Amino acid sequence: MVKLNRMGRALLVAAMLAGGAAPLAAQPAARVTETGVASPASMVFIGNSFFYYNNGITNHVSEFLRANAPSQRLRATLIGIGGSGLDWHDVESYFRPNAVARYTIDRNNVLSLNHDARLFDVAVMMDCSQCPVHPDLNGAFAEYARRHAETVRRHGAQPVFFMSWAYLDKPDMTVQLAEAYTRIGNENGAMVIPAGLAFARVVAERPDIGLYVADKRHPSLAGTYLAAAVTYAALFNQSPVGSSYTAGLDPAVARILQDAAASTVREYLRR
Fold this sequence. Notes:
Elements: H1 6-18, E1 42-47, H2 49-52, H3 57-68, E2 75-80, E3 103-105, E4 111-113, E5 122-125, H4 138-154, E6 158-162, H5 173-187, E7 191-193, H6 195-205, H7 221-236, H8 251-268
Parallel strand pairs: 1-2, 1-5, 5-6, 6-7
Antiparallel strand pairs: 3-4
């Protein structure tokens, strides 16, 4: 496995986002650029600890929406199993009536029952951090991505895949994960959220902004904020740039992450 220096990583990310350079010649372009749901009012995130670190990506996406569109309602649910792959999740059971998301506890600690006719508009799914590119597990990634996409659609929701990021000390994973998620999105007619490409971009351009905790795998607060900004931009087709929501980060750092998220989504989804 070739190790890339900072300049090499920057050039690689630029090539990936431009879509025409040799390192990604075999990578299919992202063909699905919208979910088909203009303004989702409800969504479920199905994944692992990458989602639930730092009070959960759902809360940060909700805060972006609250800051940028205060009148718009969003019910976001997170189903996370630590270390899990897609094959660990029984997605059919997540759509059982009067089970997951039956009620919501709001920011004022008030519990209210949900009576929505449709449980979720969008289901955002992520495999384990290595599964899509691991020789013993990538087959299960393809199989369960297909199964779960079919299940989600059967229940009237739209499947979306979340492209996770490379480990800090294994930058080559960026290319591999991008190719795997782009391919699986295209095969299943589902949009892909390019969080991994945004991580690579920030690591290459601003390595002083720590996106990882000590294990070089899980996200720091800045990493979760970046992932949420990418998710917000992709799902709502709205730029996070200039948002007043900073998650307590230094406003200058938050702006850098907002810019990286917006640019990555615009270039990857060709909006």
